[in-house]
């Protein structure tokens, strides 16, 4: 029996390897020689075992929306702090708006403590240029004053009332420590002078405690390794926009009329743009509470399908129909009686 099984295995082995030996190219000496291979692309067949073990990535990673390497470092909390929320100062930019939020992570999801948007700035006097560096500063300032007012800390922590462009960090008071949050920039590239640091500067001047460095503010000199406060102040008050307006007015008047058409309609000129932002900052500090928008009642649309009746309505409709039939039948009987007479 063992010999038979051994022979069968040998026979199988020969059957398996014999075609491979015949396919090898040999030269006249009986040695293998090089031959260019023209193999076609073979599709990789993944087995059932592969798919049963496959684990997909998080949805927001698949969508390219969340950097989980950064997120896990922003939301990790010390275990000896138990259920204390760890707040993030989240800043996001779109084409026409800026979103600033104070967010904390929970098991159920992220909870937003307070939020501010650039589209709220027209309520404070800024009707144009809602996505530039100066508008980002205003949005950050609005959020800082709003969250401190919500926590009843706005009187204790006034922040930097007049923006000078210099770096500012809030000092802790005697009773309550300042509200602390970590800057969350998302997938944004943190280049020097980026608008996200304008929003950061606004929140710092508003009275929030945010760990930061002055190296990325507009006006920081990489070679000299120090911040030029005058340049930074110019960006906070829209000086870079005013400079570009003056350049276009002199060199390309037609482009100025189209590029800054909204500024012209709003009466914003290069000389009064700084005063405009000062008024906006003062208005934000005076009343940072969010305004409720007045929603218009929905329009009544014509219905082409029959409205579904309730049970009582169907019953009443049936009674009316029976009464009408009875009345018609009674009228026919009266007519027959009159004909007989």
Describe the structure.
With 341 residues, the chain is α+β, with helices and mostly antiparallel strands. Helices cover 43% and strands 9% of the residues. The protein has helices at 2-23, 48-53, 59-62, 68-75, 133-150, 195-206, 229-236, 239-251, 253-259, 261-266, 273-286, 311-340; strands spanning 87-93, 98-106, 109-117, 182-184, 220-221, 226-227. It has a 4-stranded mixed sheet, sandwiched between helices. Strands 5-6 form a two-stranded antiparallel sheet. Strand 2 (98-106) and strand 3 (109-117) form a beta hairpin.
The amount of helix comes to 40-55%
End-to-end distance, in Å?
122 Å
CATH class (first level) name of the domain at 65-286: Alpha Beta
How do the helices and strands follow one another from N- to C-terminus? HHHHEEEHEHEEHHHHHH
Major sheet description: 4 strands, mixed
Shape: extended
Family: Belongs to the universal ribosomal protein uL18 family.
GO molecular function, one term: structural constituent of ribosome
GO cellular component, one term: cytosolic large ribosomal subunit
Biased composition (Basic and acidic residues): 288-299
